[in-house]
Amino acid sequence: MKTKRKKDRDELRPEYHFDYSQGVRGKYYKRLLEEGANVVVLEPDVAKAFNDSVAVNAALRSLLNLTYSTQRLTKRSSGRGKERRAA
Fold this sequence. Notes:
40% of the residues lie in helices and 0% in strands. The chain is elongated. It contains three helices and no strands. By secondary structure, it is an all-alpha fold.
């Protein structure tokens, strides 16, 4: 006959108990803004267009590539002919 184990307790250890009524929402938000961080908050309408951060990064990289190629084209062709010197 097998002996039954004691029921596993669902309780946390005392050191893991946290009083959530003492928590402060956005505690470090101002410090992040002042010090600068790599966290960017999207407006809700923009966030709807992207599923996750991978999609946002892909779109931004695509935009950067477009600006680099456009910038290179405009630097090469100034739209002016070569100025001729009067001899």
